[in-house]
Amino acid sequence: MSKFVSVPVYQFHELSPRAQNKIVGDLSKNTCLDATLDDIREVLSIIGVEDAKVEYCGFDSQGDGACFTGKYKYKENALEKIIEYAPQDILLQAITKVLSDTQSKYISKVEFELKKNYWQYCHEHTIDFAALGDYKYHHVDYTTIFNALRELMVWSYRQLQTEFEFQTSREQILLANDIESKFYFEDGKPYVD
After folding, report:
1. For the chain, what are the domain ranges?
2. In the chain, which residues have pLDDT < 50?
3. Using CA atoms, how far apart are residues 46 and 75, in angstroms rounded to an integer?
């Protein structure tokens, strides 16, 4: 014999703060950083990183960060192109200027390979840099180039972290998911018709 049971459902604003936080927490796991990763890859291409593979982990643990592998080589007019691409990003422009100024000193531009050296973590110190070719007589300022590329990895992580924080903010989650038009059980689980 079947029995009908009536269970109340609620709109978001009618729920307890605990149930509301559960909903927001569950929805915050659905982030997509693909557009930010595409933007980072475009920046790397403009600056001169070829075949870039961007990796990141985040955003609240030891070892979090971003890094990229590939080959870096001097690209003429990179600074002008970065200023055009990201006119408001002073830090990115400064990093690009350091790379351009340092590399422009050398008649034959030095190329570098960037390889990941540590599989468990993902940040700017998990990458090894190696000059390609025989550049030992050029007195190349490797440290300045390596530090600028590492700063570019830190910049990349900040871009990802900023987008993640935006997407997981309470206001954005409520707006993006049209929360008020849906119904929930008292514990915050969604009611599905």
Report:
1. 7-31+168-193, 36-164
2. none
3. 8
